[in-house]
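Sequence in, structure out.
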Amino acid sequence: MEQASQTLLLVDDEAFILTALKRLLRRDGYHILTACGGQEGLQVLAQTPVDVIVSDQRMPGMTGVEFLRQARTLHPKTIRMVLSGYTELQSVTDAINEGAVYKFMTKPWDDEHLRANIAEAFRQKSLEDENQRLHDELENAHASLVQAHAQLADLVRQQQQRLVQDEVAIGVSHEIFDAVAVPVMGVDDSGMLVLINAASQRFFTGAVPGIALQEVAGLEQLFSGFPPASKEVCQTLHTPDQDWTVRYTRVGHGALGQGGLLTFIPAGVVP
């Protein structure tokens, strides 16, 4: 994968070498920068991102190895190469060990061999950049996954807390419902009892959830049809032991399950 802009820095204390290299490499489409020594090369690196460096070894003031050592510290992602006529073994060893040099090439150079080595260096830089990009994406994806997991765990905790609170609230509601002194029954639109309190069981022994209202002894005369046409309606109910005012209140508006609440108020008691 090639970069949109490939920047090459040439460092050599001999101007004619820089001119020859620029002439040779211009055809390859690189953005070419030059420096006449190591110090000037560091100044260029401080101002402009560079992909590949090609440096001479023997330069006054700062050797190529010294320059590349500092370049490696300040800009570790650059690909660093040496192009030098100084082929002493120690120089090659120092350049590789201290400057983290990608390749050591000698002067005089073969044009095509030099171009091929520099092109390979840019391919290496592109590969490293792509690897870094993929690594960063994986890190970001992992961080996002960790965050999503934490958010999901928090939602689960909140849901569990709500369930516990709902269970407590339902338990309290049932206790309150059972504590009501008069019979109260919940009935669906088919006329089936779905909920009754303790008072309902005392006064109407046949009343149990799951049985039709009209099948409960004493309630046969209650409402000729179900559900009543009105949202709230009252009817007098006569039983052997007690006369009642029965109030039907429609509940469950807008819900999937709808029905009503029957409240039995002893006759003579103002509801």
